[in-house]
Amino acid sequence: MQTEVLHLSTDNFEPVQLKKAVELLKKDEPIIFPTETVYGLGVPYHSSKALERLNQLKKRDPKKPYTLHIAEKRDVYTFIPSLPPHIERVMDFFWPGPLTIILANGKGEKYGFRLPAHKVAQELIRQVGVPLCASSANPEGYSPPTTCEEALKFFMDKVHLAIDSGPSVLRQASTVVDFSYPKFRVLREGIISAKMIQKVAGFQILFVCTGNTCRSPMAEALFRHLFAQKLSISPEKLADLGYMVRSAGIFAQPNTPANPLA
Fold this sequence. Notes:
The protein is an alpha/beta fold.
């Protein structure tokens, strides 16, 4: 087998240029493809034959799951028909982007999803018509490749095609967050931090008065204490469960600029 390298720019490629890549994937052949984080090695998710080949190439435990790379957010609903609002917010805020989200369906089965912020990857998945099971294009135990050349050091003449779109923009693996628990867990932190996810996913309670000097801060403190008491935790632990309690004021003096500390 001789590996063909297809050079595609994210700025001016034509969808028809992906024809061979799509044909190979539909024949259950793994290919190397670019994302904004690292280069991936992928196959159609529904082919057991393709997954077996992927495991062989990666020298990976067959029991270890792969991330489903999708072309659009709506592809998630094929596997998870209904999602709570806080997960929807996280998807809308961070996708497309370097975030892998693990979700559980009603049967307790877990799926990891990622929507790459990479035009070539999105168009490739869209044309294949199904999500791609993919992982970084390296055998287990090696660093993920951020260029096609690095990926080919592992898989030259072991795959039919590699798509080269230049160095990955972020050059870092995606953040992985597991929402299958009552409190989400960050399994791997990348550019998107746990605090960033918590800020978007969390439930915010805001108390407002005029100057934020008496009523609203007192209400914030009282609510924080009583709510924590109701949950049988300390007030400091509320943020760990995604609850953010704050206070603010609305008073503004005419023709007065904002305070530098505002």
